[in-house]
Design a protein that fits this description.
single chain; mainly alpha; Serine Threonine Protein Phosphatase 5, Tetratricopeptide repeat; 8 helices
Length: about 170
């Protein structure tokens, strides 16, 4: 009994230490409900073709599993990756498909997050007016859903808004 208790306590201690370091190093933004989002990590490192391949595989897996929420989310990540490679028409197509997937679920939060992806894509395309419109729609949804300042949606909105002030 003592060995089992020590084993469990050791595992809990290891998890606490690991989660502390993940948080301190800022790696928690790459963790999703499904695990580590390698595509985001690769995109952050500027390895866009590799990130694109990961996101495309994630979209395909979500479609096969009929997970519309994950499909919408990964299509947004793929869209940003494509837009950063100046493949704007493809990026817009991915956003439209992501919106279609999320609308079937009436996922307002997911749609607002995808709206942030649209705002970034339009910004990269040089269409500031479209970027601002997408940002405004996502911000209105954040207000309606009463999202807190530390929520993922508010952080994404702030990130997009920072582009407007440049």
């Amino acid at each position: 009994m003592k060995r089992i208790l020590l084993f469990l306590l050791t595992n809990v201690a290891v998890m606490v230490v690991l989660s502390f370091f993940v948080s301190v190093l800022g790696l928690n933004r790459f963790l999703t409900e499904q695990g580590l989002n390698l595509g985001m990590l690769l995109a952050e490192q500027g390895r866009l073709p590799e990130a694109e391949a990961r996101f495309a595989a994630a979209v395909a897996a979500a479609v096969r599993a009929q997970d519309r929420r994950a499909e919408g989310q990964f299509r947004g990540y793929l869209a940003i990756t494509l837009a950063r490679q100046a493949r704007l028409a493809e990026a817009r197509d991915e956003i439209a498909l992501g919106e279609q997937a999320l609308r079937t679920l009436s996922d307002r939060l997911g749609l607002a997050l995808l709206g942030c992806d649209r705002a970034e894509t339009e910004w990269l395309a040089g269409d500031v007016a479209a970027s601002r419109r997408a940002h405004a729609l996502a911000a209105a949804t954040a207000d309606e859903l009463a999202c807190g300042e530390e929520s993922e949606l508010r952080r994404r909105l702030q990130s997009v808004a920072a582009r407007f002030s440049v």
